[in-house]
Amino acid sequence: MATAAATEAPISADYEIVIGLEVHSQLLTASKMFCRCPANYANAAPNTHCCPICMGFPGMMPVINRKAVEYTIMTALALNCEIPDFSKFDRKNYFYPDLPKGYQISQYDIPLSRNGYVTFTHDGQEKRVGITRVHLEEDTGRLLHVNEGGDPHTLVDLNRSGVPLMEIVSEPDMRSPEEARLYMEKLRSILIYLGVSSGKMEEAALRCDANISVRPRGQSAFGVKTEIKNMNSFRAVERALAYEAVRQVEELRAGRRIVQATRGWVEERGVTVLQRVKENSDDYRYFPEPDLPPLVVSRAWVDEIRARMPELPDAKRARFVADYGLSAYDAEQLTAERALADYFENTLKIGQPYADSAAMQTRAKAVANWTLGDLRALLNADARDITASPITPQGLADLLTLVERGAISGKQAKDVLEKAYASGAQPAEVVKREGVSQISDTGELDGIVAEVIAANPKPVEDYRAGKTSALQFLVGQVMKRTKGRAKPDSVMPIIERQLGGA
Ligand SMILES: [Zn+2]
Q1: pLDDT tens, 36-69?
Q2: Which of 83, 264, 354, 445 has the fewest CB atoms inside 10 Å of its own CB, making it the most exposed?
Q3: Distance 55 CA to ligand 1 centre (A)
Q4: pLDDT confidence of residue 10
Q5: How far apart, in whole angstroms, are the C-alpha atoms of residue 480 and residue 478?
Q6: Is 342 helix (H, G, I), strand (E, B) or coil?
Q7: pTM
């Protein structure tokens, strides 16, 4: 299997990889792009969400979905694009059985937006990728290939036909398959923050086509590119590009030429295969859609859309560092997903009011550690995301309060979290039900320490001879006897006192 790590090293010596991505995202509108049919077809029986418009009957008049235009403008603003005053729709002509009209309504020379950029972190450095354009079009229907009783045939389902589809085209600014994956992850995060896309690649609500070429290092002209399709996960994007880069370099090293073509990624075999020799935009005979008026985008409308935008990941990350004193790394992790950031802030809010900002930042660090550490590990093991967490923000906040008050130890809290997660009860209930508590009574601890000292003459002798590691051993023995119910920092002075001081 080709991997980015394995392939970049030999290529980087004499060849440079150049990648640009075309990302398609279905938009979360209630209705389709040009008709009133529901856009959500997930659980619908085939061909039940369609009408004469999205089935491509002749003479039907499309009507532009205002929400889809707003979502596209909002995305373009989030990607720092210019929004021209005027835009239009065009017909892209081609024939395929999932496209009953024989053309797709798309945008050609005057898209809704252009000239933007997005940034993300790669190896601790900020990487900037240019956005050529964000435009709006309609999705096609779906073909279902079946083979019932040795009679292979294809069924057409037009429920998806006409669903709003936004296309985000990047500049060829990425230089490794890993950068391409990070770019995709950042885009997805922004789309989900905006609430315009489900971001689900596994359901093809988010799709990626990649243009990739290689060139000798130092050469400014681009090499001949191929377009890779059919990648349905971030991992597939990275693997497919790593494979294709190696393939192209091997072709060039063997003295052969790269053929401009569309290639499909075959996940099971880990290879790209030739699908068709690439068509040019000329082949589509684009022309302005005569059934739709030009789209005038007033500045007032753009301002209104901008005002409705939520806080985006970069701004949120900066705020988490400035307000909560989190590390850049923790802030980045927490803000990558909007739901995770919300969970963190909701948990932190429950502890209000804080005595001072230091107390708030201490709690913030604890919430970040538990959310990104133990809780996330439990969720990952279960393939759940934070929105499906059985531990509520209130539950986690209560657990942290018990630790801060010294009622339970950090180690006990870990056990409690696991038990709560598995049983569906909240942590405070588990603590109550199981009588989890920390020994704070010094009389009780004194007795246990005395027993440990009596039972371990050798380490005691070592300690008296000046071996500090012996003290750790004795503390460990006390923790063992109390089953973790003692606080290590209160045990240590008791041992020292009983042994006559260090
Ligand atoms: Zn329809």
Answers
A1: 999 999 899 999 999 999 999 999 999 999 999 9
A2: 354
A3: 7
A4: 60
A5: 5
A6: helix
A7: 0.84
